[in-house]
């Protein structure tokens, strides 16, 4: 069968190849075999391949943080899955045609779910959900502000906030995204700039915004912090600018802002399998009822993994890039 393999740390489009590996064979006791249908390429995959993530892979090695597929076979003693079930994988080696692993490495999804959307559930939807609900007790009518608002996480956050009545201020770096995000349910969309806080104040009628969600770091997070009310929380979860977080100490000393980091992998290590299953079951309902939907800009077979990675690295994309291992 075919699989993506990292041959060396370096530019993703040059260091990942599609190779042939032995089929994983029939599942043993407590295991399942899954045909992988769709995998999203996330910034974290690229950071990891290029040696800029929390942990460095040791090549040659398999890849792929997310994937969704269908159960092809179940081993003895497996009770929560059966052949034909749609599943989301919890393993981090998804860019492959088939995965054989313990049954608890897979979360069952509703039969109606679109597996291309489900392949974006594990990382981005859970990240948006947890950041929205873990730091400030936001009630309907309250506001949250985020940057990189057109990203996968950003779009999920807009839609989840809308569904719970929380209003969103969305910072982007391209004016052409304004109408698109508003149609998705964004309340305010603004293009980033030095006068961001003033324009946000005008657009929200001086709303007290207690939660700021930052994927960019650098000077952008400083501008986001300026938009927050005294005592508010900045959650930094991404490093798209590649620069250090830059927030004026004024906001911590005199305005009591809080800065916290969010990393889904770390949060999930604190959860039991039952808690993980329950969280994704609720979020999967949001995929099925259409609350959550992220555009897929392009899909590639595993044999074109290098082209897919080059595409995923482009800025100003119109959506996610995915792999379809069994297409
Ligand atoms: N901490 C966690 O647990 C966790 C979990 C999930 C995701 N993340 C992080 O969340 C971020 C978004 O992930 P995603 O999958 O949603 O991304 P995505 O869909 O691939 O979108 C990337 C976004 O980043 C923006 N961007 C790229 N370079 C930028 C720059 N230099 N300055 C400002 N914006 C820039 C893009 O804007 P344009 O469209 O204008 O190019 C786009 O909005 C990434 O940093 C990712 O690593 C973290």
Topology of this structure?
Elements: E1 2-6, H1 12-15, E2 16-20, E3 31-40, H2 43-49, E4 61-62, E5 68-74, E6 86-89, E7 98-102, E8 106-109, H3 115-118, H4 121-134, E9 143-146, H5 152-163, E10 167-172, H6 178-184, E11 188-191, H7 196-204, E12 211-214, H8 218-226, E13 233-236, H9 250-253, E14 258-261, H10 264-269, H11 273-288, E15 296-300, H12 305-312, E16 320-323
Parallel strand pairs: 9-10, 9-12, 10-11, 12-13, 13-14, 15-16
Antiparallel strand pairs: 1-2, 1-4, 3-5, 3-7, 3-16, 5-6, 6-8
Helix pairs in contact: 4-5, 4-11
NADP nicotinamide-adenine-dinucleotide phosphate (NAP) binds at residues 42-44, 123-124, 127, 148, 150-153, 173-174, 215-216, 237-241, 262-264, 315-317, 320.
Protein described:
- With 327 residues, the chain is of the alpha/beta class.
- It has 2 domains: 2-120 and 294-323, Alpha-Beta Complex (Quinone Oxidoreductase, Chain A, domain 1); 124-264, 3-Layer(aba) Sandwich (Rossmann fold).
- The protein has 12 helices and 16 strands.
- The chain has helices at residues 12-15, 43-49, 115-118, 121-134, 152-163, 178-184, 196-204, 218-226, 250-253, 264-269, 273-288, 305-312; strands at 2-6, 16-20, 31-40, 61-62, 68-74, 86-89, 98-102, 106-109, 143-146, 167-172, 188-191, 211-214, 233-236, 258-261, 296-300, 320-323.
- Strands 3, 5, 6, 7, 8, 15 and 16 form a 7-stranded mixed beta sheet that branches.
- Helix 4 (121-134) packs across helix 5 (152-163) and helix 4 crosses helix 11.
- It is globular.
- Bound molecules: NADP nicotinamide-adenine-dinucleotide phosphate.
- The site of NADP nicotinamide-adenine-dinucleotide phosphate has 27 residues, from helix 2, helix 4 and helix 5.
